[in-house]
Design a protein that fits this description.
The protein is mostly helical. The chain has one domain. 68% of the residues lie in helices and 0% in strands. It contains 4 helices and no strands. Helix 2 packs parallel to helix 4 and helix 3 runs antiparallel to helix 4. The longest helix is centred in the C-terminal third of the chain and has 24 residues. The radius of gyration is 27 Å and the shape is rod-shaped. It starts with a helix and ends in a 7-residue tail after the last helix. 21% of the residues are buried.
């Protein structure tokens, strides 16, 4: 019984392992070329819808809303690239940027059906 008590005391006196260092992986960010292509796609949509809105009053509201899409790409890319962002926020921002780019491309493809050549 004494040996068991001594063994328990010795085990309790062992040095605790140091906690692992914090993760230093780089945040996932979109490649600059992908961000640029997305910005170009959204700017093309803005230019086309606003150009048609000058002659088609039905597209005026879509023109005013389209400008926010370009800004959303910039904000999302900035959040993902910010070193103070955590990994989850960076991944969600990248997904948001890709969703906005998808929306720009889809809206651009719908314009001919709305009478905007």
């Amino acid at each position: 019984m004494k040996w068991l008590a001594i063994l328990v005391l010795c085990a309790g006196c062992q040095k605790q392992a140091a906690p692992p260092p914090p993760e230093t992986r780089a945040l996932p960010s979109l490649p600059a070329a992908e961000v640029k292509r997305g910005q170009d796609a959204c700017k093309a949509y803005v230019d086309k819808v606003c150009g048609c809105a000058a002659t088609m009053p039905a597209l005026v509201q879509r023109c005013s809303l389209a400008h926010a899409l370009v800004d959303a790409i910039e904000v999302g890319a900035d959040v993902a690239a910010n070193p103070e962002s955590n990994r989850r926020d960076a991944v969600q921002s990248n997904a948001s940027v890709r969703g906005v780019v998808k929306e720009c491309i889809e809206q651009l493809a719908k314009l001919p059906g709305d009478g905007c050549p």
